[in-house]
Specification:
alpha+beta, single chain, Enolase-like, domain 1, disordered C terminus, five-stranded antiparallel sheet, 13 helices
Length: 333
């Protein structure tokens, strides 16, 4: 592990100023990803700015009926919050499908949004990786690609985004609130927050140097209560998705008035599928409609030599998620 300096910030502006003013500084929250990468020598910051003392660990109602989630809220607290479980079950389910209870007790919402890929070539400092060193090449392209992406890839990167929570947030029209250097704030729709690794492998998100996530906001949409998360993986727990789907449906009887669809485990970012949503909207909630939506969602997939199975797996996962969402609606009615 490389030597680094450490400081604790007591105010958001103090944290932002410290990181923005140092080209090799990093924020430290739960540390569940960063500390791991420090041990591997993949991350080599010269300064860690601990943001845990900041007052960003509350789940609060918004005046319009939505919910504001502080960036330092722990994953376990968010997953088990009664309002989240009732109004946004897809988010609770996605969080509970990730990591282990011990890690969820440490991991923060803001850190979860910024977790790095689990691509083995990224995590091996001896392998060529455009995420670690732009222009170095992508060892995965000629390597073992079973876990890699089929959507949003390029000849620069085929790594899969690892998150569960971000996939659910993409389906919930979430907005990311940030604090920028100089005191400015901004709101970024979750759908625009992540940059596909295939487009810019070294970036990952639209955050500027020193920009700090302060909260995630969820809109007050009643039918988001009719949502669910499906995850397929190699083992029942503590494993990343081979394919995942987050869906929400607004039904009028058996007619779909509106839908939200996002995919995980198959893309280089949390993958909101407008094509699948169009295929669902106005259609009847039945097997043929769900299959058509799945075909639309994966229409642009580009498999590698070891992961073509992910395309059909993702389609079936999405169909199952839609079937489950309909069943939830029927039970509640």
């Amino acid at each position: 592990m490389n030597p680094f300096s450490y400081t604790r910030a007591s105010r958001p502006e103090e944290a932002v100023t410290a990181v923005a003013g140092h080209p090799r500084a990093k924020f430290l929250a739960g540390g569940t990803t960063l500390v791991d990468l420090l041990r591997l020598g993949v991350e080599t910051p010269e300064l860690l700015v601990d943001v845990n003392p900041l007052p960003l660990a509350r789940i609060e109602p918004l005046p319009d009926g939505g919910v504001r989630i502080g960036a330092l809220v722990r994953n376990s607290d968010l997953a088990n919050d009664p309002a989240i479980r009732r109004r946004y079950p897809v988010l609770s389910q996605a969080l509970l499908a990730g990591a282990s209870p011990q890690i969820r007790n440490m991991a923060t919402v803001g850190g979860n949004l910024l977790q790095r890929t689990r691509c083995p070539y990224f995590r091996d400092a001896a392998s060529a990786c455009n995420q670690r060193l732009p222009g170095a090449g992508c060892a995965a392209l000629s390597g073992y690609t079973r876990s890699h992406a089929v959507l949003g890839t390029s000849d620069r990167c085929i790594a899969t985004h690892p998150g569960d929570m971000a996939v659910a947030l993409a389906a919930l029209d979430a907005v990311v609130r940030t604090r920028r250097a100089g005191g400015g704030e901004r709101a970024v729709p979750l759908a625009d927050f992540h940059v596909a690794y295939g487009e810019d492998p070294a970036r990952g998100s639209v955050l500027e140097p020193g920009e700090l996530i302060t909260a995630i906001e969820l809109p007050a949409v009643p039918w988001f209560a009719r949502s669910c998360y499906q995850k397929v993986r190699d083992r029942a727990s503590y494993e990343f998705a081979l394919a995942a789907a987050a869906v929400a449906l607004d039904l009028d009887g058996r007619t779909i008035r509106a839908a939200r669809v996002a995919l995980g485990g198959v893309a280089t970012k949390p993958w909101r599928s407008a094509a699948a949503e169009r295929a669902l909207t106005g259609a009847r909630a039945e097997a043929a409609t769900f299959r058509a939506a799945a075909e639309a969602a994966l229409a642009g997939a580009r498999p590698q030599k070891d992961n073509a199975f992910k395309i059909e797996l993702a389609k079936r996962t999405l169909v199952r998620a839609l079937e489950t969402a309909v069943a939830i609606v029927e039970i509640k009615i």
